Amino acid sequence: MTNRFVPSRTWLRSLKRRHCKKLRLGEFQEFGLEVKLTFAPALDEAKYEEFFVAFVDMLEEKGLLMAGLGGSFPLAESEAFICCDARGTVSDALAQELLGWLKARPEVSTATGELLDAWYGW
To answer: Looking at per-residue confidence, does 10 or 43 come out higher?
Structure first.
């Protein structure tokens, strides 16, 4: 069960614009991409490292950061959260591009993703 903070419209209207900016609410809300991956066959350490380096290089080219993506070997499934390196949001187009890249990898059997509030979406 997750406790997600969802501000009411009334509360948001009562905040000044600078407070919304500081709290990253309303028009200043930032989104990240939660990715769930399944590997087939399960990855050993060497194959995982090869995949991980390629994925991180691609994310750095796009100015993104990743948290997670690990587990016990052999690795059959994993999760990660991807967000912008600086202030900003992961757009729908960028999310689809990332998922397309993951699905094209031979190690990945399934890749799903969902945009979540990067600050309050957990």
So the answer is: 43
Residue 59 lies in domain = 30-117
CA 51, CA 31: separation in Å to the nearest integer?
25
Burial class from Cβ neighbours inside 10 Å (0-12, 13-18, 19+) for residue 113 reads buried
Confidence (pTM): 0.83
**Does a structural domain hold residue 76?**
yes
Inside any domain, residue 57: yes
Residue 65: give its domain's CATH number.
Answer: 3.30.70.60
| Identity of residue 59 | L
Cite the beta strand spans of 23-107 per DSSP E. Answer: 31-43, 64-68, 75-84
What percentage of residues in the chain have a pLDDT greater than 70?
93
Q: What is the dihedral of CA 9, 10, 11, 17, to 10 degrees?
A: 80
- Distance, in Å, from the CA atom of 52 to the CA atom of 117, rounded to the nearest integer, reads 24
| Residue written as token pair 């050993």 | 44
Say whether pLDDT at 1 is over 70: no
